[in-house]
Write a structure and sequence with these properties.
Helix content is 41%, strand content 16%. It has 13 helices and eight strands. The radius of gyration is 18 Å and the shape is globular. The chain binds adenosine-5'-diphosphate (ADP) and magnesium ion. Residues 41-42, 65, 69 line the site of magnesium ion.
Length: 289
């Protein structure tokens, strides 16, 4: 456990005993996805989830990548894993009970397991194979948010996430080939929207690993903003060594070093995402009315 004194003060202001949410409701569901590896998906999922907990939300982070980086990055030991995201897909595990408490008050993780690497093949022949996650997550749960950390591929696992969630956050690394493969990703999201999940949207595109000393970063950021316009979050995540060190301590950077530029950027991102959330919710209510 992290000593209480090392937790940033915001967490200590959380109401006592408020772990999982006291009231059950269908949570808001977000996926963090990009079929490229190493663009900052897991770093974003972990730190965004932590920042949401800092403002009092209860969050379940689902590690849907067989590599399990979100699980280890949050200090979950393999030996401590009882239920995994595999059990959610195939064993009807209950997400309300399967979430493991982390060192972050309010943050629960559903770890990945080695079985998940075979899940793609098992899904091919499974009944209602695209709807597995949707059916278990779209029910009243003790979480305000469920965040899914997707694998670096547009496979059936990622497809399950797209069918389940309300919205997708797309991290893009500020490097030369940032936009490559992106039309494939946006077309996949469009197809899922047409076929399985009519309310699916891109929540936002997030520029990651931005290096101020490098002109290429600025050029890529300009290109991405020209291409995606307002969809790109104003917050940009800088390249920051604290973000890459934190997982080896099993801690989110926001707790490992809250004053670091990387942690600061993710706190700012959470604020921007919550403001965008209000707009999304208002638009959805209008649609229903
Ligand atoms: N903004 C950043 N600055 C420095 N290193 C980063 C940053 N974001 C991620 N990293 C590091 O880059 C690697 C890939 O990031 P990760 O979040 O695991 O990407 P993905 O989940 O898309 O594969 C990891 O080692 C991570 O610690
Ligand atoms: Mg990852």
């Amino acid at each position: 456990m992290v000593k209480k004194s090392t937790l940033p003060k915001v967490f200590l202001r959380r109401p006592k005993n408020k772990g999982k949410s006291a009231t059950l409701k269908i949570p808001r569901l977000l996926a963090v996805a990009n079929q490229k590896g190493g663009v900052g998906k897991t770093t974003t999922a972990i730190n965004l989830a932590t920042a949401l907990c800092a403002v009092g939300k209860s969050v379940l982070l689902i590690d849907l990548d067989p590599q399990g980086n979100a699980s280890t990055g949050l200090g979950v030991r393999r030996s401590a894993i009882r239920k995994s995201s595999y059990d959610l897909l195939f064993e009807n595990a209950n997400p309300a009970e399967a979430g493991v408490a982390t060192k972050v008050p309010g943050l629960y993780v559903l770890p990945s397991s080695i079985h998940l690497s075979g899940a793609e093949i098992e899904l091919v022949t499974a009944e209602r194979r695209e709807f597995r996650l949707r059916e278990t997550l779209r029910q009243p749960l003790p979480y305000d948010y469920v965040i899914i950390d997707c694998p670096p591929s547009l496979n059936l696992l990622t497809l399950n996430a797209f069918v389940a969630v309300d919205s997708v956050i797309v991290p893009l690394q500020c490097e030369f080939y940032a936009l490559e493969g992106l039309s494939h990703l946006t077309k996949t999201i469009e197809r899922v929207k047409r076929t399985y999940n009519p309310n699916l949207s891109i929540h936002g595109v997030l520029l990651t690993m931005y290096d101020r000393r490098n002109n290429l970063s600025a050029m890529v950021a300009d290109d991405v903003r020209k291409y995606f316009g307002e969809t790109v979050y104003k917050t940009v995540i800088p390249r920051n060594v604290r973000l890459s060190e934190a997982p080896s301590f099993g801690l989110p950077a926001i707790i490992y070093d809250m004053k670091s530029p990387g942690a600061h950027a993710y706190i700012q991102l959470a604020g921007e995402i919550l403001r965008r959330e209000k707009k999304f919710m208002a638009a959805n209510t209008q649609q229903v009315a």
